């Protein structure tokens, strides 16, 4: 009968044996994960879907994504954008129009202002 992991005497293993155990556990876990991923892909295919799975931090097949100016852009990240909106009360406060609206803009909009009122090109014209 095989011993459960909690019954394994790790203190009785030398450093090399412990490293081998760790490596074997990593291999076994990777094989289990790959088997489950293959099963998931097969189920998705049966349902009419195609699933692509990539390691975190790795670009999808086909190369690196390129942003404006041909610079490489990290997967899932967009490059920087010039500000599109500015607080007329404080020119240092700007917003590019991406993500959550800044508090100063939310307050102005709640007070009845329109988003278009804060366009930089409109303020500078």
Walk me through the structure.
With 125 residues, the chain is mostly helical. Among the domains are: 14-56, no CATH class; 85-124, no CATH class. Helices cover 36% and strands 7% of the residues. It has helices at 15-46, 103-110, 120-124, and strands spanning 85-87, 90-95. The protein has a two-stranded antiparallel sheet. β1 (85-87) and β2 (90-95) form a beta hairpin. It starts with 14 loop residues before the first helix and ends with a helix. The mean pLDDT is 82.
Quick rundown:
By secondary structure, the chain is mainly alpha-helical. The protein has helices spanning 15-46, 103-110, 120-124; strands spanning 85-87, 90-95.
Shape summary: elongated
Overall strand count: 2
Largest sheet: 2 strands, antiparallel
Gyration radius from CA atoms, angstroms: 27 Å
Low-confidence stretches: none
| Tally of helical segments | 3
Strand arrangement within the widest β-sheet reads 1-2
Essential attributes:
two-stranded antiparallel sheet, elongated, 3 helices, 125 residues, mainly alpha
Question: How are the secondary structure elements laid out?
Answer:
Elements: H1 15-46, E1 85-87, E2 90-95, H2 103-110, H3 120-124
Antiparallel strand pairs: 1-2
